[in-house]
Amino acid sequence: YTEAWDADKKSIHVMPDTPDILLAKANAANVSNKLYVQAWEEAKKKGYDMRADAIPIKTAKASRDIASDYKYKETHEKEKGHYIGCPSAKDDPKLAQAARAMALQNDRLYKKAYNDSKTQIHIPVDAMSVQAAKECQTLVSDIDYRQYLHQWTCLPDQNDVIHARQAYDLQSDNVYKSDLEWLRGIGWLTEGSVDVVKAKKAQELLNDRLYRTRPEQLKFTSITDSPDVVLAKTNAMQLSDV
């Protein structure tokens, strides 16, 4: 049935001068990297002739001399120490201005008057602020706050002593964890724990076998003369190679 169609699929011929083929060839030539750089490669093979007195070479040399740090500072290095018209450095207005700006920016000179005046402050011993500071120091002092009582002893069978011991035992970490000591080393099975039961319930919920019933497990009887069954049989007879 499909033999003629299969043979026809293999016998497709496209003419080489069709518009699609010509357009594909033109696109291939446009996007070809080899054709794109072909002229440049041929120009490189011919070589070049660059003379020393060419304008680009002179421009490059001039730009290099301008950008050179040595050429840039050559005139300044020659003029160092040749001050004309000033008998000393203090008479030069530029140096005097620089020294003045340095003195204004100097932090030590800026704070010199303040540091000298800090040591010339005198406070009377009976000033209100001094008295208040002494009283505050007395209040927050640990020596004056704590006044240790005399050493005294009590009988071990007194009620307050027994009650204090019971309170210490309740607060003691060793007594608090004593019930845990006998549990150390005892084996325990995870079967029946909360996490295991939770995992089993989650597995039952995600189990595809319990969630879905397979068709072969359902008991049913197909009707042989139903329209869809009759149509299927007819189609099978028409498509049968026999």
UniProtKB/TrEMBL annotation:
Signal peptide: none
Tagged with keyword Repeat: yes
Pfam family, one: Nebulin
SMART domains, per database record: NEBU
InterPro entries linked: NEBU/NEBL, Nebulin-like, Nebulin_repeat
Superkingdom of the source species: Eukaryota
Protein name in UniProt: NEBU protein
Species the sequence originates in: Urocynchramus pylzowi
The gene coding this protein: Neb_3
